[in-house]
Every structure is written in C-alpha cells, then in structure tokens.
C-alpha cells in the first residue's frame, strides 16, 4: 500500500512539474556572438533623462511636440492596437477559470380540445452549467503567457511610434527653420546685390564699368529672386507636414515663427551597447515577441496530449413557478480526451510555431545588430557634421576677405568685375552651405536621440494616456 502511494505521489509531482514548465523549449542565446561591450564613443549612461527635445531649449519645438504627441493619428492607431492586445490577453486568460452559464425558460402547451375543453399547461425550468478544463500540461497557461508577452510587445511598439513621431516633428521643424534662414539670407543678399548694382551703374558713365558688368550684376539679382520662390513653397509644404503630424489640417503661424537653430549641448551619453536592450523599445518588442512565440510552441505541444474537462450542471423544473424548485436534477461529469488521429494537424502546428520562433530569433538578432550600428552611425555623423561645419565657417571667413579685396581692387581700377562676381557667387554659396550644414548638425543630434531610446518614453507614454 505504501509503495502504491509513493508511485502515486511521484506521478502527481511529475504532472505538476510538467504543467509548471509548460513544455516550453528554450532557444539558444539570442544575442550575436560578437556583440560589442562598448561604443566607439563611450561615456557613462545617465540613469534618467527627460524627453530629448527639451535639450534644444526651444519653446516652439516643445509646443509642437506636445501638440503632436497628444493628437497624432499614427499614435492613436498604435494605442488602439495596444488596447486590442490588452483585451485579447484578458480573453485568453479567462480560459484559466471555469465558465458558468445560467439559463431559464418558460413554455406553454395547449391542446386542441377535440370536443373537450382546451387544456393549457405551463412548464418552467431553471438551471445552470459550469465547464472547466484542467490545465494538466500547461496549455492554457502557455497561451496566456504568450498573449501577455504580445501585449507588452505592443506597448513597446507604441513607444517606438512615439520616437518616430517626435523625431519627425523635430526634423520637419528643423527643415522649416532652415528654409526660413535661406529665405532671410536671400533677402539680405538681394539687398546687397542691388546696392552693388547701383555702384556699377554709377561707374558706367565714367567708363569705369562696362555694359557687361551691369548685365552680369542684374543676372545675379534675377537668380536670387528665382531661388527665393522654392524656399517659400517648401515652407508651406513643411507646415502642412507638421499639421498632419499634429492631427490637424493646418497649424497657426504663431506656433511656427522660429528662425534660429537650437544651440546644442554636449552629446548625450550612449552608455554601453547592452543598455540598448533595455532602452530601445524596438529591441524590447522583438524580444517579447520571441518570448511569446516560445510560449506558443509550448501550447502547441501541450495540445497533442490528453485533456481533462469537467462539467457540472443543475436544473430545476415544474409546472408552475411555485413548484419550480420541487423537481431538480444535478449532473457531474468529467471526460478525458486524447488525440489519436488528426492527419498530423497538431504535429504540423508544433513545427510551424517552432519555425516562427526561428524567424523571431533571426529578427531579434537583426534588430539588435541594427540598433548598435545605428548608434555608431549617428555618433559618427554627429562628429563629421560638426567638423564639416567648422571647415565651412573657416572657408566663409576667407571668402569674405577675398571678396572685400576683390571689390577694393575693382573700385580702384586694378581688377576686372568678373573677379568680384566670382567671389560674390562663392560667398553666397558658402553662406547657404553653412545653413545646410547647421541643419545637418541638428538632424544628426535628433537621429542620435532616436537611436538611443531611453527612460523618457515611459513618462511620455503616461502623459499621453492621461490626455486620452
């Protein structure tokens, strides 16, 4: 008798351990073998950082970000997907509990009489039934775990959408500022060229300037006027892009008045590559979906094993409501079902889910490697953009000196006007190149912030939820 009890205890413990494990298979280590230990431009990572655009110190950009994150339609879609994942997880999790149904009915039978008085009989019934599947092999637990992981993945994907939208707002805003600076520069250059035209025209009667000099100077003025046209049209396009990001048809110009790029502070600390696993929502989402599909494999394997389902029902019936509870029936039943032949359907589902895990594993590794490369590329571009800007500024200083000397020599009659013209065009181009390069420096900083992710996302998400 003791030996039988011991076997029974060991059998029950085995069932318990298998059910707790959920037949879940572990995949190989998901990180690439050559995962780096630090970035090329390493610095200590800050524990908490505010939203990255606050670093720029632009009230206009802050307002645009707040407006867009509160009303952006892409974020609204992502939020709706998160809600769907939440309720789907709740729906699957409900399988862990018994299902109880109550029902009641009243029916009336009436005889046709056939020479006798018609008889009318009422029949009342009430009852309920409960159904429960014993999660012997952890199938339901695995399904629940899978949906919970997918819900968390959807939350991380919402954070990724926040990064995308906030970055797009800042990038469009920077482009708009650059266009305005180009336009303002064109206006200043146009005024200077008109003044120079007056000088050339005044020298023409004295024989110190030729008709060619006048025509060339007039041509420069017309080229400047032509170049100003697309800058204005681009501004309107960028305004509409910002309006779309804010979920509106248009944005009042009072929100879009900035004409200066923000002053950038020191580089944000990239930390260690391992920090990306926690800071990047796309990396976290890929890891969570990998976990979810591992649980799906466990559920598919458990589905090939026997299942125990319990049912309980009770019914009361009577010919009238007063006698309803005089007659009752209670039924308790349990059944064990085991798949014998299904044409290989369950086995094929196990194979399919394992292949999905392989796909998720490859996707996760690709996203991790891409994240590391994106940070490295952003750091490199930031360095190169700053170095290029410094070089252009030195070139502009030299060009301005050369232009002053060319003008002096021309006014003294020691040089042709073509030399002045060439230096003017060179200076004009360098001034516009510097605006473009200043824009690239800011865009490179935005790209770096986007690649780093960070703890600011959780706070931003909480604020967005409150606004909803």
Fold and architecture overview:
It is a single chain. By secondary structure, this protein is an alpha+beta fold. It has one domain: Up-down Bundle (Outer membrane efflux proteins (OEP)). It is 63% helix and 11% strand. The protein is built from ten helices and four strands. The protein has a four-stranded antiparallel sheet with strand order 1-2-3-4, with no helix packed on it. A hairpin with an 8-residue loop joins strand 3 (307-318) and strand 4 (327-337). Helix 3 runs antiparallel to helix 4 (139-203). The longest helix is centred in the C-terminal third of the chain and has 67 residues, at 345-411. Residues 1-22 have low confidence and may be disordered.
Overall number of domains: 1
What global shape is seen?
Answer: elongated
Largest sheet properties: 4 strands, antiparallel
> Can you list the strand order of the major beta sheet?
1-2-3-4
Number of helices: 10
Helix fraction? Answer: 55-70%
Q: What is the CATH topology?
A: Outer membrane efflux proteins (OEP)
Rg, rounded, reads 37 Å
